[in-house]
Every structure is written in C-alpha cells, then in structure tokens.
Fold this sequence. Notes:
The chain is α/β, with parallel strands linked by helices. The chain has a domain at 3-135: Rossmann fold (3-Layer(aba) Sandwich). Helix content is 43%, strand content 14%. The protein has helices spanning 11-21, 57-61, 78-92, 113-126, 140-143, 146-152, 169-181, 200-211, 222-231, 236-250, 260-265, 272-280, and strands spanning 3-6, 29-33, 45-48, 66-69, 97-102, 130-135, 155-157, 189-192, 217-219.
Amino acid sequence: MTIAITGATGQLGRIVINQLKAKIPAEQIVALVRSPEKAADLGVEARVFDYDKPETLEPALSGVDKLLLISGSEIGKRIGQHTAVINAAKAVGVPYIAYTSLLNATENTLSLAPEHVATEELLTESGIPHTLLRNGWYTENYTMSLPAAVEHNALIGAAGDGRISSASRVDYAAAAVAVLTGEGHEGKTYELSGDSAYTLTELAAEVSKQTGKDIPYVNMSEAEYAAALTQAGLPEGFAAALASFDVEASKGALYDDGNTLSGLIGRPTTPLSDVVAAALA
C-alpha cells in the first residue's frame, strides 16, 4: 500500500506526513513536491511533482494506491492544476483519491468555492473512487496575525459578529489520515469544522486573557480592512481576497455545527485557546 501526498512540504502536507508515519511504515509514504530537497527532513520518498509541468505527474503517481490531493495554493490556477493531476491519476490507474475541498463548497459564498466545486466535478467525471474532505477555516488563518495584533494593541478584521467554526491544521490533517488509513470512506463527502465557534471579538478576548493586555477587536469595512492589510505588506489582490472572506464570515459562511470532524478523528477538535497559545509562544 503506497499513499502519496501532494503539496507535501506545505503547512498541511507536512503534518499529514508526520501523522501518517505514526500509523504506517515510512516506506509506504510518498511526498509529491516541486523541490525534493525541501522534503529531505520528512523521512519519506520524495518525487518531483509540479502541477505546471504535466510531464512530471504520471511518473510520480506510478504505483500509488491512494492519493491525497491537497488543493493547490495558487488561487485562480487551481482548476487547471487539479485537472492535470486527476488526468494523470486516471492515466496511470490510481485507484483512490481524497481531496481537500471547502466547507459546504456547493453553497459556500466565499470566492474560493468555485475552484473547489469544479475540482469535485472533475473527480466525479474521472470515475476514480474518491472522498471529499470539505475543510472549514483553519484557526491558524486568524492566529497568524496575533503577534501584530499584540504589537499594535488591536485585532482588526471585517467579520463583524459572524461565528467561525474553525479547526487547527492538526485536526484537518488527522481527518485526512483517518480517511487514507481507514475503510469505507469511498464516495463520502465530509463537512469538516471545529466543535465550537467564536467571533473575532471572542478571539480578541482570548488574546487579551493570555497576554494580560487589553487587545480589543476593531471591526472595519471591507475596503478599510483590505487597505490595512495592503499597508501591512500583503499584495493587493491577496489583501482584497482576505477582506472579502471576512465579510462573508460576517454572514455565516464559516459557521458549521455538524461535529463531523471530531467524529472522524475520534477526539474533540483543538480548543481555540491552545492554537492562540501556540501563536503567541
């Protein structure tokens, strides 16, 4: 049994591989990466796998029994990239794919959703047995900005009082590992989110509690928040996208109360306080 992971040197991919190594022999794991030298520390076989170089895809997928397709990180390029991967998998006869999609993808109002929906449709059309891991928001999407919030004595955003049911990368990785190493997941769609939801005001309160400083949440308009992110050094397009995600969060796009994730991984999802503590450490 050979399990291969795309984007294996990414933030989620690394965690998946480390969790897999605790369950199956390292010889059964393949890291699919653009630059194998960056995967040297993973302790598994690394194969060159570049979405934008289709000639690398089929050889890298040779002999793979299960493929975890972690969605590409380049928004706007993902449909083409994922098409190339799925076509290559079909060509070499990969028998199973698990794909990291987006929570409630077909109804989700985030601008990220259409690329995920298109990929889900490509998987269906391919005829390859598959599982859809519809990941909700990563708690780290918010906690990565906490050092700046502490420095400037304010957490900024545009999510209003929207409730966010996020989970940690460790939790979503555990779901992928459960599906890749378990049975009976073919044809299933899992809507994955954290056990408890919070507002950004509540996140700011947790940061205040852990730092002993008063860190309020300052809600901005979409345009103000995008401008602030640009001023902080983010590329304009990315800043605009992040601001739009927050606005959709204010309308409930990141909320879910299904508890499917904790059921799949057999434990509660990581508490917000733990992810905050890790970000502040």
